[in-house]
């Protein structure tokens, strides 16, 4: 009874209790397996998204890096050159929205321009949303991702900051600025599959500005990170994004086959009540199945956690394949059945690659750490070369004798092809730059030769014209000094006027040449504005009276002198007044003076010349101040002129810190104006600079009569005139016809002063001066150049040879006597 109770009650009760316990264990295992499979599937989906997002993002960064090479070759590239370099980066599959270059941290170049105009001029250092990431990129010298953030040109984007460091001619490295690549966030997420409505998982990403788990959530719902998600890190150049995923609708609380499992166990319980022995064996099998399921679960979890959507292979220590996923089949063309159990050299790979794999596996086994990622070239079954980025690591907790190693490989063939294309473009760009540099060098040589030829021509022309002009003006001066009848004096005045007009034309051409060559130097001396205007009025009133025109001057009371180039200012004003007299038949001409924007040290002098003349056509005004331009350039024009006066006036005004221009209404008159920034002077300085007319001539007669002057001049007429002018003030002139005679005479006799021509036969004035200074009794005698070579370079050459002063022909008698008086007074 007791045994029956034992077998019929106790044992069945124990069996039922055992079955209940077994059912609970199996149900638990089933739920764990289902949960593991659910997490594995979510991890697979997450890794798939991770790989596409990483591939797309890294691809865009590689394109942006290629542009840095172009900038290194041409740091000063303009917008057109930038567009040429950037355009190839924008293909049909790019996620780039735009790319910009920011020299000095300020965006100057952008492609495409359309739609991104608002970004031009953006200073990263002053933009509160972008300053931190831009500065971090500059200091770290690494790529920094900012965003996603709101763009200046609208929309959201991820901005990659790529610092550009270049070397200056001294070999020192400096930060040129940044290359900013704007990646369209929505397009990037869409092409990476994050916006796929059929995606079976919910996704969220945090780590704005590459701050990883500490950053803000910028994609998906933030609550997802609190729902026990599967997490993955997307490594970025300087930081990371953290991805989270859960199944759509949340995690399942129990397996979907739970009731079927319970029904099965119910039926099994009924069978087991009659089959005690079978129950025992079933429990044993379930226990072994559970251990096997747990082992499989660990292996599967390790595989899935190492990016299952890339090519994944397992190898044993001998390098034989133990696992081969679908991505490996697609990459290399061998099926899993063909690959498993075989080494790589039997799967179309080289013996070198197979040997390298075995060495790497041994290294990983010894250190227990991953190796990679490393770039390798492999061959597929069709004989095509493919580039992969491979990483090898051991499976943890595996038995040493049967340890397995996981190799993950990402196909980077397209990226390598893009890098090769960028390198090819780089070589092409270098070739173009080299060819263009040679062309520019050739053009520069030609321009320099043309400029030298022009300078030589102008110098020769100046010399050939100034020499007879000096004879004309000097002879007219001597005749006037000898006393002539009024009719003859009038004729001498006409000669002098024609001579001065021709000299003004020559000086205008030379001034223009000097200004364009950058060799024009302004003189500085104190002057009174009222005196300058009065001089112009006195020189112009006879012409105004002849045409019955009123000449009016409106000059405010200015009680201090200005310091500047008075002759050039007077020349500019005289140009305006002469034009007004030429083009005005009736009415008046008004000269107005004003001081604009005056401070303690300087004043902006402004002068207007207003006439009631014929006026200027509207279409002629823009070209009026161009060189050799006039309002009427036709062959039947009524008024003469060279077309140089206004052009030179504007250039002089700009050299003096001002400008020049004109306003006109045809038929009603014109107003010409110019401005100049001048220093303020002291009244006592101006008083000291003023000397009465004829004072130098009188001083020479009274203080230096009888002093000996050596005159070196090859042209007979000019020699005759200079001797007469010296005799006129009581000086004793001894003449030499060339530099060689002058050297001999200076070696034999002492002179009080030497007047030296520059261009002469036998020996020029420069060489003669050098020899006199080197060894003669006149080593310290003042030597004054008196030459028709009137360029700035000529004056510099004379002073460098040892001369003390410089007079350009034709010589003004007052200046001639003043210079001689100054040097004779110094040596008395």
Class by SSE composition: alpha+beta
Radius of gyration: 49 Å
Number of helices: 21
Globally, the shape reads: elongated
Biggest sheet statistics: 7 strands, mixed
Q: Average pLDDT, to the nearest integer?
A: 80
How many E-type strands? 26
Specify the helix fraction band: 40-55%
- Taking the alpha carbons of the first and last residues, their distance comes to 162 Å
Low-confidence runs (pLDDT<50, min 5 residues)?
Answer: 631-641
Sheet-strand content, in percent, reads: 15-25%
Outline the structure in words.
- There is one protein chain.
- Helices cover 48% and strands 21% of the residues.
- Strands 15, 16, 17, 18, 19, 20 and 21 form a 7-stranded mixed sheet that branches.
- The radius of gyration is 49 Å and the shape is elongated.
- With 828 residues, it is α+β, with helices and mostly antiparallel strands.
- The longest helix has 72 residues.
- The protein contains 21 helices and 26 strands.
- It starts with a helix and ends with a helix.
Report a brief summary of the structure.
With 828 residues, the protein is an alpha+beta fold. 48% of the residues lie in helices and 21% in strands.
Task: Give a quick set of tags describing it.
21% strand, elongated, 828 residues, five-stranded antiparallel sheet, 48% helix, 26 strands, alpha+beta, seven-stranded mixed sheet
Fold blueprint:
Blueprint: H1 2-73, H2 79-86, E1 96-103, E2 109-111, H3 131-140, E3 144-150, E4 156-167, E5 173-184, H4 185-191, E6 201-206, E7 217-219, E8 230-236, E9 239-247, H5 258-274, H6 276-304, E10 311-315, E11 321-324, H7 326-332, H8 336-339, H9 351-367, E12 371-379, E13 385-394, E14 405-411, H10 413-482, H11 486-517, E15 525-527, H12 529-546, E16 550-554, E17 562-564, H13 566-583, E18 588-596, E19 602-611, H14 645-655, E20 660-665, E21 669-680, H15 683-689, H16 695-703, E22 708-712, H17 716-728, E23 732-736, H18 739-748, E24 753-756, H19 765-774, E25 783-787, H20 792-801, E26 805-808, H21 813-827
Parallel strand pairs: 16-18, 22-23, 22-24, 24-25, 25-26
Antiparallel strand pairs: 1-2, 1-5, 3-4, 4-5, 6-7, 6-9, 8-9, 10-11, 10-14, 12-13, 13-14, 15-17, 17-21, 18-19, 19-21, 20-21
Helix pairs in contact: 1-5, 1-6, 1-10, 5-6, 10-11, 10-17, 11-14, 12-13, 13-14, 16-21, 18-19
């Amino acid at each position: 009874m007791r045994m029956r109770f034992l077998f019929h009650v106790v044992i069945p009760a124990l069996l039922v209790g055992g079955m209940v316990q077994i059912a609970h264990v199996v149900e638990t295992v089933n739920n764990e397996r289902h949960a593991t499979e659910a997490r594995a599937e979510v991890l697979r989906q997450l890794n798939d998204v991770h790989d596409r997002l990483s591939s797309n993002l890294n691809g865009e960064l590689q394109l942006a890096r290629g542009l840095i090479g172009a900038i290194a070759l041409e740091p000063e590239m303009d917008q057109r050159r930038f567009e040429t370099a950037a355009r190839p980066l924008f293909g049909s599959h790019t996620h780039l929205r735009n790319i910009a270059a920011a020299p000095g941290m300020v965006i100057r170049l952008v492609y495409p321009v359309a739609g991104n105009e608002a970004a031009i001029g953006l200073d990263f250092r002053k933009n509160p949303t972008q300053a931190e990431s831009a500065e971090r990129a500059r200091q770290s010298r690494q790529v920094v991702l900012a965003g996603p953030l709101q763009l200046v040109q609208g929309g959201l984007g991820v901005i990659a900051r790529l610092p550009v460091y270049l070397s200056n001619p001294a070999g020192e490295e400096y930060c040129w600025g940044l290359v900013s690549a704007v990646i369209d966030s929505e397009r990037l997420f869409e092409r990476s599959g994050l916006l796929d409505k059929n995606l079976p998982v919910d996704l969220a990403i945090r780590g704005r500005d590459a701050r990883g788990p500490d950053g803000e959530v910028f994609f998906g719902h933030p609550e997802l990170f609190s729902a026990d998600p599967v997490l993955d890190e997307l490594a970025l150049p300087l930081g990371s994004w953290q991805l989270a995923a859960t199944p759509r609708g949340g995690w399942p609380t129990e397996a979907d086959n739970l009731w079927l499992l319970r029904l099965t166990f119910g039926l099994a319980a009924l069978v087991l009540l009659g089959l005690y022995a079978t129950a025992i064996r079933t429990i044993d099998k379930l226990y072994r199945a559970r251990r096997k399921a747990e082992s499989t679960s660990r292996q599967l979890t390790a595989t899935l956690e190492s990016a299952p959507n890339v090519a994944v292979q397992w190898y044993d220590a001998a390098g034989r394949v133990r696992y081969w996923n679908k991505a490996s089949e697609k990459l290399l063309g061998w099926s899993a059945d063909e690959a498993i159990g075989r080494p790589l050299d039997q799967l179309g790979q080289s013996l070198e690659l197979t040997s390298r794999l075995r060495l790497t596996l041994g290294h990983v086994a010894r250190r227990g750490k991953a190796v990679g990622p490393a770039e390798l070239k492999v061959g597929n079954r069709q004989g095509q070369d493919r580039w992969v980025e491979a990483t090898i690591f051991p499976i943890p907790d595996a038995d040493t004798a049967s340890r397995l190693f996981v190799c993950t490989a990402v196909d980077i063939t397209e990226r390598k092809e893009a890098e090769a294309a960028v390198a090819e473009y780089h070589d092409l760009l270098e070739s173009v730059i080299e060819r263009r540099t040679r062309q520019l060098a050739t053009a520069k040589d030609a321009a320099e030769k043309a400029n030298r030829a022009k300078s030589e021509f102008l110098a020769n022309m100046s010399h050939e014209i100034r020499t007879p002009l000096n004879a004309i003006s000097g002879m007219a001066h001597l005749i006037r000094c000898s006393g002539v009848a009024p009719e003859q004096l009038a004729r001498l005045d006409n000669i002098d006027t024609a001579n001065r007009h021709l000299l003004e034309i020559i000086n205008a051409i030379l001034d223009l040449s000097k200004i364009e060559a950058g060799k024009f130097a302004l003189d500085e001396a104190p002057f009174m504005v009222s005196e300058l205007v009065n001089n112009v009025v006195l020189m112009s009133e006879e012409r105004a009276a002849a045409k019955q025109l009123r000449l009016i001057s409106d000059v405010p009371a200015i009680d201090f002198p200005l310091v500047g180039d008075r002759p050039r200012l007077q020349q500019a004003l005289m140009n305006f007044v002469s034009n007004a007299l030429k083009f005005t038949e009736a009415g008046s001409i008004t000269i107005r003076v004003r001081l604009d924007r005056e401070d303690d040290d300087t004043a902006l002098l402004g002068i207007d010349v207003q006439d009631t003349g014929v006026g200027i056509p509207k279409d002629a005004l823009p070209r009026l101040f161009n060189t050799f331009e006039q309002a009427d350039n036709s062959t039947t024009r009524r008024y003469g002129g060279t077309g140089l006066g206004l052009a030179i006036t504007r250039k002089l005004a700009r050299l003096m810190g001002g400008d020049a221009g004109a306003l006109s209404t045809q038929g009603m008159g014109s107003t010409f104006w110019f401005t100049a920034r001048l220093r303020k002077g002291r009244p006592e300085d101006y008083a000291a600079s003023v000397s009465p007319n004829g004072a130098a001539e009188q001083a020479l007669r009274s203080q230096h009569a009888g002093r000996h002057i050596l005159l070196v001049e090859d042209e007979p007429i000019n020699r005759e005139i200079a001797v007469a002018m010296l005799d006129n003030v009581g000086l004793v002139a001894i003449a030499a016809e060339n530099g060689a005679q002058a050297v001999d005479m200076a070696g034999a006799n002492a002179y009080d002063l030497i007047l030296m021509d520059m261009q002469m036969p036998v020996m020029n004035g420069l060489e003669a001066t050098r020899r006199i200074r080197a060894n003669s009794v006149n080593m310290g005698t003042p030597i004054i150049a008196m030459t028709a070579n009137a360029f700035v370079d000529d004056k510099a050459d004379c002073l460098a040879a040892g001369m003390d002063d410089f007079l350009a022909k034709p010589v003004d008698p007052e200046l001639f006597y003043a210079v001689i008086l100054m040097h004779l007074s110094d040596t008395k």
